[in-house]
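ARCHIVE CARD
CATEGORY: sequence design from structure
SOURCE FIELD: tokenized fold
FIELD CONTENT:
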């Protein structure tokens, strides 16, 4: 008699012919835990269907017209039988033993609803990139989560029942849908636990949604607008509004600059410093912005130092465009020299690191 699955692995899949076999193999190769693998083929037009057919009898495939990752994941959730749900995008991979270790945490910690691990970042060929690491936040992470996502889907396992009760993924959004769900669950009281070890592989390549930078940025703001418009949001979390929007605008500005969307990037940078005026002359903010300007998987100061001149020029232009804003708020105008000094100190720091001093 077949063993009932403890874990349901949810795989949204759209035109993933190149990568999906590696993702499925990493799930099916998990030991020490009874699992099922559900794949929602979200209207793929490449050879994905042929790859999935090779796994006949080992996975459950659901077919739908192209509707986006939220709808694909929700289709899998409706068909899932496991007590726990592990998220796996079709271009990512699990490390051996990941699911059993996460399930053990949920088995022994009834207060925890989500357990996440660390992850490696890999490129399109599976080569690991020297990324900056992961968060170790545990417990009530709602305030920290307002500042941005803490874990990629490949790192996460959740209890299925609370996800269903929260309505699953929001099908009206096409990006940031995982962060949106994690936020809603945390605000409902879901507590997190961390296994501080890289047990997943998050792949970065040209076809991912984070390349649609305007949509990502606008959706990030839309999610925060909805949260802070909730009259029932606790006062302690409402106090994080300026920090949350500052971070959303700052990350958006970096992504837009990197994508060559300079006008929109300048507007986002201005919005970031308006949300938190003290950040304009803050060297730590400038150093963080320099790191954010680097590609995913390489967002640390060592990489920024290799491009110190370009990075410093971008920082300088962002600050100067802000200072040239008509009718600029006096609070920002007063920080004119502090802002320029912070840019110059950041550039000098990167230059020293570039030459190993």
């Amino acid at each position: 008699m077949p063993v009932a699955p403890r874990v349901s692995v949810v795989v949204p899949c759209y035109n993933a012919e190149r990568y999906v076999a590696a993702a499925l193999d990493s799930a099916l190769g998990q030991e020490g835990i009874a699992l099922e693998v559900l794949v929602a083929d979200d209207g793929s037009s490449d050879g994905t269907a042929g790859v999935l057919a090779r796994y006949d009898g080992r996975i459950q495939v659901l077919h739908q017209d192209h509707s986006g990752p939220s709808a694909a994941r929700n289709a899998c959730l409706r068909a899932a039988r496991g007590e726990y749900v592990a998220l796996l995008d079709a271009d990512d991979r699990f490390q051996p033993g990941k699911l059993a270790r996460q399930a053990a945490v949920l088995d022994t910690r009834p207060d925890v609803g989500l357990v996440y691990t660390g992850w490696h970042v890999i490129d399109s060929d599976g080569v690991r990139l020297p990324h900056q690491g992961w968060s170790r936040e545990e417990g009530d992470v709602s305030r920290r989560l307002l500042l941005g996502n803490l874990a990629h889907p490949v790192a996460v396992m959740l209890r299925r029942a609370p996800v269903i009760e929260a309505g699953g993924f929001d099908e009206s959004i096409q990006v940031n849908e995982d962060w949106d769900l994690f936020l809603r669950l945390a605000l409902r009281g879901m507590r997190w636990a961390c296994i501080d070890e890289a047990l997943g592989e998050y792949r970065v390549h040209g076809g991912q949604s984070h390349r649609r930078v305007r949509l990502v940025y606008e959706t990030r703001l839309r999610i925060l607008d909805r949260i802070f418009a909730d009259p029932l949001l606790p006062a302690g979390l409402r106090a994080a509004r300026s920090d949350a929007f500052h971070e959303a605008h700052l990350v958006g500005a970096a992504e837009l600059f990197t994508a060559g969307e300079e006008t929109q990037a300048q507007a986002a940078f201005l919005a970031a410093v308006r949300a938190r005026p003290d950040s304009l002359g803050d060297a730590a903010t400038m150093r963080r912005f320099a790191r954010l300007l680097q590609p995913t998987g390489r967002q640390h100061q060592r990489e920024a130092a290799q491009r110190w001149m370009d990075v410093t020029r971008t920082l300088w232009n962002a600050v100067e465009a802000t200072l040239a804003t008509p009718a600029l708020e006096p609070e920002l105008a007063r920080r004119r020299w502090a802002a320029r000094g912070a840019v110059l100190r950041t550039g000098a720091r990167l230059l020293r690191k570039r030459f190993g001093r």
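CARD ANNOTATION: The chain has two domains: 7-207, 210-354. The chain has a mean pLDDT of 93.
SHELF: design records, drawer C
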